[in-house]
Amino acid sequence: MKNRIDFNEVVTRDGFQNEALFIPTDKKIELINQLSQCGFAKIEVTSFTSPKAIPMLADATEVMQGIRRVQGVEYTVLIPNLRGAERAMQVNPDELNLVMSTSQSHNFSNMRMSMESSFASLAEVIHFVDQKIVINVSLSTAFGCPMEGYVDPKIVIDLIARFNDLGVDRLTICDTTGMANPEQVAQMAQLVTNLFPKTAFTFHFHNTRGMGLANLMSAIQNGITQFDGSLGGLGGCPYAPGATGNICSEDAIYMTQLMGHQTSIDIIQLLESAKFLETLVGRTLPGQIVKAGTIECLHSVSAAVQELMSHQKS
Ligand code: COA
Ligand code: ZN
């Protein structure tokens, strides 16, 4: 039997944080409420970061308070530091997604501090939360850094082990700027699942170099069953030059469904939300299925071709 694949929808965090024009709070809430009906395992609603760093998500508290939660969906929020965790704890998320990079240059760009300072700051958050909320840690630039290039998997392994020691058993391995290729993904998937069999790993891909879905396939073939995706393929890190969107949720989900994996996601409803998202950002997004339709959307045969076919039969 094929593995069940679970998706975490990150459009209202990873997707929105890179948008130039502010998306009104009520529109964010409306989109999340729609996504809650689509069957996702998890939704990353927002981030409790410094509003100066990410002005688009300055309304994190209002958004968390405004959404209608659906049972069975986990609502997670991105946290860079203790201040963020304190703010998030006021609105009862199901999970805190702590973030740091696996390269110094990206961590300094994104978090304005060294990797060691970030680790210490996240360790402080983990002690503060004291198991009251589930913690996931996202490791950015794990397959390559836009400033430093190749990142040695030993750095990733070392950080996973150190977070494991602090009791963290959920980690996301992020290809923040689309530097990974399918072979590298296969090696990383084998490495982390063999070394840390009790840890729940999510893989997070960006399609910056067109390898997003190939990387997803490679990860699935190597036993990974949890993925982040962004509706319409919206996304990108404001602190990573040239970063573009995440893998497109609806394209990725539809591909896995066609291949016989169970996802519990209603693709038709999701495509409606992808169209709504385009009205929010005011442009066409990179998603393909929303343009082409599902494979059930067949075209009628033209009269001329029908005529040709009828002659050939006789
Ligand atoms: N929530 C709200 N405000 C915060 C905050 C948080 N989580 N963290 C810091 N602040 C505020 C401080 O209170 C301070 O406010 P003030 O100027 O009014 O006194 C100001 O932000 C600066 O605080 P400081 O601790 O010096 O932080 P910094 O400026 O060095 O920024 C981060 C560090 C990590 C907080 C900031 O860079 C950040 O939020 N980055 C997030 C990046 C991100 O989300 N990237 C994309 C996701 S991968
Ligand atoms: Zn990302």
Structural account:
This protein has one domain: Aldolase class I (TIM Barrel, Alpha-Beta Barrel). The protein contains 13 helices and 8 strands. The chain has an 8-stranded parallel barrel, surrounded by 8 helices. The radius of gyration is 20 Å and the shape is globular. The termini are far apart. The structure holds coenzyme A (COA) and zinc ion (ZN).
Topology:
Elements (H helix, E strand, L loop, with lengths): L5 E4 L1 H5 L9 H12 L5 E6 L12 H7 L7 E6 L2 H8 L5 E7 L2 H8 L3 H15 L4 E7 L12 H13 L4 E6 L6 H14 L4 E6 L6 H10 L4 E4 L19 H10 L8 H15 L7 H4 L10 H11 L1
Parallel strand pairs: 1-2, 1-8, 2-3, 3-4, 4-5, 5-6, 6-7, 7-8
Helix pairs in contact: 2-3, 2-11, 8-9
Coenzyme A binds next to helix 4 and helix 5.
Reported CATH architecture:
Alpha-Beta Barrel
Beta content: 5-15%
CATH C-level: Alpha Beta
The tally of strands reads 8
Overall pLDDT metric: 96
Regions with pLDDT < 50 over 5+ consecutive residues?
Answer: none
**CATH topology, anyone?**
TIM Barrel
What characteristic shape results from the CA principal axes? globular
Topology as a string of helices (H) and strands (E): EHHEHEHEHHEHEHEHEHHHH
- The whole-angstrom Rg is 20 Å
Strand count, sense and barrel status of the largest sheet are: 8 strands, parallel, barrel
Count of separate DSSP helical elements: 13
> Bound compounds, please?
coenzyme A, zinc ion
Q: Name the CATH superfamily classification.
A: Aldolase class I
Query: How is the largest sheet built, in terms of strand order?
Result: 1-2-3-4-5-6-7-8
Number of domain modules: 1
Structural class: alpha/beta
